[in-house]
Amino acid sequence: MTRTIMAFGDSLTWGSDVANDARHPFEDRWPSVLGAGLGDGYRIIAEGLGGRTTAFDDWSAPCERNGAKILPVLLGSHSPLDLVIIMLGTNDLKSFISPTVHGPVAGMTRLIEIIRTYPYGRGSKVPQIMIVAPPHCVQQDNAEPPRQGRDLDATRQLGPAYAALAAETGCGFFDAATVAKATGLDGVHLDAANTRAIGKALVAPVRQMLA
Hints:
The protein has helices at about 10-15, 30-40, 65-80, 100-115, 150-170, 190-210, and strands at about 5-10, 15, 20-25, 40-50, 85, 130-135, 170-175. By secondary structure, it is of the alpha/beta class. The strands form two sheets. A five-stranded parallel β-sheet has the order 4-1-5-6-7, with helices on both faces. It has a two-stranded antiparallel sheet with strand order 2-3. Strand 6 (about 130-135), helix 5 (about 150-170) and strand 7 (about 170-175) form a beta-alpha-beta unit. Helix 3 (about 65-80) packs parallel to helix 4 (about 100-115) and helix 4 packs parallel to helix 5 (about 150-170). The longest helix is centred in the last third of the chain and has 18 residues, at about 150-170. It starts with a strand and ends with a helix. The relative contact order is 0.19. The model has no long low-confidence stretch (mean pLDDT about 95).
């Protein structure tokens, strides 16, 4: 039986390559690396969008970035799902959206609620959930703060806050900051090596959750 996994995230999941103002090749994006590592019997659906938040509107965006608004559509279109991996929160911490860790924690709580209460059709079950804390933002190489005013301390607080939320709600958890670091080019995004590192590191915990 094939296990279906949806990777729900932002530009770190989409594969933004800030060094080249482009997108990392398919094989370098962490959902692709995860799928290759899991091998036969698993299918990865990559749903990454640059600028996506957990549950906050961004009226400066060219398309809908509020994760809570689009998630029900994706659950409906991709069901049945066995696991939803959520790596979001970095965009919540933009200075003009929700500059403290309380925002992404509240938003992540809402996403968990949406997944667990969605009216899945016959033959579908409520998927398991894994929360992935994104890598910390870093100071830019030019000594400026991370792009769009993200607070460095707040990005470091996401891991412990999401770990506590996962324990409270019975979700899986992985801290991507343990294996990946943002590039100093903008203090937010990842180079290909660090993007791949997340996919490789998730293989074992995903296998364990779906065993």
